[in-house]
Structure formats: C-alpha cells, structure tokens
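#struct-help
A.M.: can someone run this one for me? Single chain, 141 residues.
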Amino acid sequence: MSDNRSHHQQVASLIAQDREINDLNIKDFRMKLELSLAKWERDGQLVRRAGWIAAAVTILGMFTILPLQAIPALRQNVVAHFVWCLAWFASLAIAGFFIVLYREKYAPAIKRARFDLQTTMIQEMQKQIEELRKQVELLGK
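D.P.: on it. Structure tokens below:
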C-alpha cells in the first residue's frame, strides 16, 4: 500500500514540476500509457484464463477418482491411483501458481497503469481548461 502511495506522490510531483509540456509530448506519452495498459490487461487476461482452466481441471479431476473406485480392476491398481494423485496435485499447483501470479504481478501493474493514464488525462484537461480561461479572458476584454 505504501508503494502505491509513494508512486502516486512521485507522479503528482513530476506533473507539478512540468507545467510547460507541449501537447505533442503529452499525447505521445498518453498513447504509450494506453498501449502499456492494453498489454498488461491482455497478458493479465491470459494468465487469469489459464488459472480458471487449471482450476476447472482440478475440480474435474476430483470426479475422475470415481471410475477408479467403481471398476474392480482399477480399484486395486496402485499405479493408476498414483498417476491420478500426481496429475491432480499438479493441476492444483498450476492453478495456484496462476492465481498468485495474477494477484502479485498483473493486478498491481494494471492498477498502476490505469492510475498513470488517468493522471495524465487529468493533467491534459487541466491544461485545456487553463487555455480556455485565457481565451475567455481575451474575448472578455
């Protein structure tokens, strides 16, 4: 949480320092932020989807033990039970890996990229408002 606050403060201080950025630089910077956000969201969606698939395989794997228990020839087959346990635990570990990966890497990065983009857009709007005020003042005189 403190990392987010320090990042927010750093972005705010950089924007406060740079009042004289031209429109081309702001638009270029915003475009890069939009592309970065789109990449993080796309990659995050793939990781999230992989996690859901692994979780579904894990849940379905719980039901595959029933045929192993119902068929007498497979009930006493230790190798079949070992392979089933190994596959089930592997799918559980993979699902856990993707869930942790999304929560620890992609979710914070997406949140940060959205904040940076919103901050940039607000800065653009503030600059436009200042320009409009100047134009109104010139027209009013």
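A.M.: thanks! The CA atoms of residues 8 and 14 lie 10 Å apart.
D.P.: also worth noting: Residues 78-140 form the longest helix (63 residues).
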